Amino acid sequence: MVARETRNLRIFITSRPDPVIEAVLRPLSIKAELRDRLHSINHRDNIDDITAYVHESLHGVLSQDKRQRLVEKAQGLFIWASTACRMLKGEATLDSPESIYDRLVAVDQTGDIDEVYSLVFERVDSKSYTTMCHMLGLLLAAFEPLPIGDLDDLFKHAGIQGTAKVLVQNLGSVLTEDATTHVIQFRHPTMVEYLRRCSIATDSNNRNRISINMAKAHGQAASWCFKCLKSRKEGLRFNICQLESSFYLNRQIPDLDVKVSKFIPTRLRYALATHTQK
To answer: Which residue in 12, 20, 71, 164 is deepest, having the highest Cβ count within 10 Å?
Structure first.
């Protein structure tokens, strides 16, 4: 109604290509335009943005001609460019920027993000692969990002000799820790999609060295959830939110959300809401 009566009102919506969104917007008569321009090299501003980002990020790391070569290699795919930049600037590596650059430009298909992710993991010590794949499987199995403390408890429950902090330090180009909540999450959905493909790969000659057992990861995550529920210290117990009476409805309790956040640990809320309900 507002859009019809206000000629000067313009609403600009962006999203990843989604058939549900497209199905809703396409028949609308008030729609001025619906265009898919994700990663399209036909739009110069995509390339201009990537060019500015790469030259600013890698100034002093690579020469101008090599920076421009990476821009061309990205072919309008910003996540390719940003992942490559993080690899080149990463502190937790013994590889020189020049050697990383040589491997990036040697990637077979221009703009292929899977090849870049493969390079990320090739830089990890092969002795750590089993542990790393185990940890990534649990991250992938989680129905929502978990903070470092909870992830470490999950890793310990699964028998993993490693910490979330070290995992992020070694895979900082694809993982990130929120500075406020300390939640660990993947930097981009394409990384999740890549790991899911790794979890179903059956070809023993596959170049992909990442192998993730998702059935095992989901089982261990569910087992950890039940452990959290049964914990004598932080598990379920009567009147966990310390309410004055059990006879009030939730909507009648002032600041219930605050009480839930204060008295129910994050891992317990996660256990109640996710794996034990699936």
So the answer is: 164
